Amino acid sequence: MSISSVSGANSSGGLLIERFSSAVRGSSTTQTSVAEQATSSTPSLDRITRLIEKLKEQSLNAARTNQVERLDSFQSTIDEALSEIGFLAGVEFSAGGVDQAVVTGAEASQLKDVQVLGLPPGAEASFSGAVVRKSAGASTTVDNIGRLLSGGGSLQLNSGGDSRTIYVNKGGSFGGLVRSINDGGYGVQASEIDNRLRLTSRSTGPSSSLEVISRARRTVRGPEGLQVSGLNAAQIANVAADGLDPNQSITVSGSRDSVATTAELTYQGDAEGRVSGTATFQLNGDQGSQTFSATKGESLEDLAARISAASDQTGVIATVDGDQLRLTSLAKGDDASVSITDISAVQETSVSGVDPDEFSRFDLVSMPADTQVTVSGSITQAAETANLTYRGAVGSEVVETATFTLSGANGSAEVNVTQGESLADVADRINASSSSTGVLARVDGDDLQFESSDVGSAQSVSVTLDRITQDISVTGVDPAKIENFTVESAEHRSSNTLSGSIDQAATKAQLTSNSYGVSSSSATFSLTGELGSETFSVSWLQSLSSLRNDINDATDRTGVVASIESGRLKLTSSEYGSDAIVELDVLSGSFGTSGGDGNGNAQGTDAELTINGNAVTADRNHVAYSDSLGSYSFDLVADQSGALADITIDSTDRDFDIEGGDGDGNASGLDAVATLNGVEYTGTGNRFEETIDSAQLDFEVTQGFVGAINPVTVESKAAEFSISGGDGNGEASGQNGTATIDGVSFSSATDTFEAIVDGESVQIQFASNFTGTFDDLTLTGGDFVANRSAGSQTYRASGRSQYVEINGERLYEQAGRYLAEQNGVQISFALDASASGTIGPITVTGTKSESSDSYLPVLEGQQQLAVQSVLPSLFQLASGGAYSGDAYAPSQTLSVLIEALDQLQGLSGQSSRQGRSLQGFALDVSA
Q: Where in or outside the cell is it found (predicted)?
């Protein structure tokens, strides 16, 4: 089967090759101007244009349907295309978008995490600074603590809207008071500094506040205060009874029945002490709530550290015991609580039963929560490549020299082959450009196989013959009128007929003397012809025959031939045509002539013809004629005129046989077909993206496989998140401790109980963790002791917020995080609890495009600058750009792409709609 060529440039690829070939031929002989360099088409420039056109087509389709299928996939296509365009234009492309962000320099010892909130394409930012001030709780110092301990009294603590009172016994120890405050769940931390009591709120930041009212008593009479006997320090740490009269005694007996407890829940990790499933949850305590994320596989220790770091916001700390994480309230008693709410466990998916002989890949994209689907059936048709065969000559050689366009799914390329060239060499050249065509070649015996690089109906192979050695035949030449007929050129596969006539034969220049036989007078004259001039002399009555002989002796110098006709001397040019002349100028004497212009000047004429209705003037008797089908030359037989016989010129192709496909040099691949769960599906090549019984699947069939498949099971279920303890529903409460004093039951959230014994108020502080019956105590009022108020003092303080300086700007914490921005790059970060000093530098960049494997060269010179001027708006389509992500709109994207194409057309000298071509841009840059 012979393939017919297409006249003119191929719209998909021929124009590229023609322009390239033309540029190559001209480069060796022509010094192009700057503007010409900028507007010369190159394969790299055409590749850029084709990439933008492809994006335009996809965006146009989206604009028509007002939707984009798989927007993430389309964005990936945009980024890949812009990456290649950036490479060809000599610009390093860096995609934006938070998913593309690359963060370096974040020290784990300083930062808990860094999140990128915004990243434009091509943007880069660096954030550095320092922790200038740490957040702190409200803190104050009680100066009259010595008076409190010597005479007794109380401390009223007002913190975070809560008010609690601590009673201080006369003669108590400083250390005992500090321990009592720290263990009592008062929301403050106590310490001793220079014999003063330092109190600091456990909550931090500007919202924390603390008010302390210190009320001291003083003894005004009597040397002794309360007398206590029977005190067992292992049971009771302190006891007070402020209302006893002097020498009044009471006996205190009873037991501590239970210790106040914290609230506690337990999270069960895996056997290695790691988080068993990814989930988010809200942890609630008596001081507030906080949301945490747990990632499958992270250590329980890391999760515990994050929870404990936020204990001032929740009132809950976390500890690890083997494979369990314990969540414990800081406070004790009935008011202590811990609960887990708003658990959002991710759905963990699994795929089982996949046979690699049947499927090269099998992915579950999505399916409803807590469902299971089993896929069974068969692959009924394997995907195939597109194939064509070129029939070569014996010896695996090219049959005839030819040029053809080879096209595939990726584009087209022009291929030149030479008669006798090995098919292996041709295959190597084709395979070198397979990335731009999508076609591979291999030698099969004496044939060359063209095969698409992938399988499926989207794959194609097309061979279009552009040029091949022609056989030329000429018929109808009349030798009586035409000789030396030559075909200078002929259009491929054409037939042309030349018809016409010789309207006027070519003539010679001619003069005739007026004398007969002999010269009638003496004369000297100059004789000039096409070749030059000579001077001759003639005497009176000299014979014209002798003059003829003299003139002919000089013919090779003049181009004039003399003869005697009817007794007169005839002077004739040796050649025909308008360039043939005879001129006789008398220098002295007299020598008359007739003919020519009557003044001794004669000129020949060229032949005149009509060919196919067109007037043609010969060069003497030589004719050159061209029309749309060819160019021809021939010589007319001298002195012939009249009608010419029709001359037919036929141009036919030599052998170029392509087999396969549709018989016209086109072939397409086949998609795989499967029947799964009773439904027939057609893939894209070997790939299937289908929803089968509520499961959205994406899988690829192993190339060439056909037959029944092993059943595949896909499942989605919530990640494991097991909480035990409390009420069994993720909620736990603490319990007050209980004590029986003087037969009456009392409860307390601390180690201190207030009881009424014999009508008197008694405060008992038990030793930590003691339970059981305590030894009887005898309390006796002091002799002549009188206590009076020594006045009160109030101390107030507020917390302070933490702030950092980043890139010279002061940033304050907002909900535990800091926000920073540079060059359009926005980040959010949280500091580690122990962070101090220098932060960063933290560098944020987009994902850099890798070195392109394109075989095309990077643009250079003014052309590169011109193309780069188009890129800023085009790059806004990339991930993170102004027209990407949630801001994506098909119409806006289409507008940007059309604008880019409009400007690139200026590289061929066309003006853009803005009235300025890129040729003009190149000239501006050059200037």
A: Bacterial flagellum
